[in-house]
Write a structure and sequence with these properties.
The chain has helices spanning 43-71, 80-134. The chain is mainly alpha-helical and 140 residues long. Helix 1 (43-71) packs antiparallel against helix 2. The longest helix is centred in the C-terminal third of the chain and has 55 residues, at 80-134.
Amino acid sequence: MAVPEGTPVYQPGFNPGSVCKAPPTGGSYGTPVPAGAGFKYDEATLHELVKEWNDLAQEYRDDLVDAEFIAKVEPPGREYASEDNATITRQSGQALVDALNQRVAYCKNMAAKYVAALGKYATADEHARTVINQQSEGIA
């Protein structure tokens, strides 16, 4: 299988078949993202990222149901081979359960970070609203 050329591009929530043909762009309210440490996203992208991380966490939680069955498998017979096979399968199932739980926690943590960033937007908006409301009316 050939490896595609170029660098992968992540476009959160972008569906090429949708009515909206423009993917979300980075920036603060549509302004270009300056070079430097970290990332900046507009508010709509932050909402989309929160949704995507929560959706991914739910997919992992759904997978946990099947993983629990694997972690609790019983041998089909009462001979050595069946018992040993079931023991190994349970160990593998438990490793899967542990990995899925770690992934759920990671996704929830990432969603919480984007929710915190949304809170910063709300704080900045409230501050701007307060400053504007304190301005005198009319031409100065």
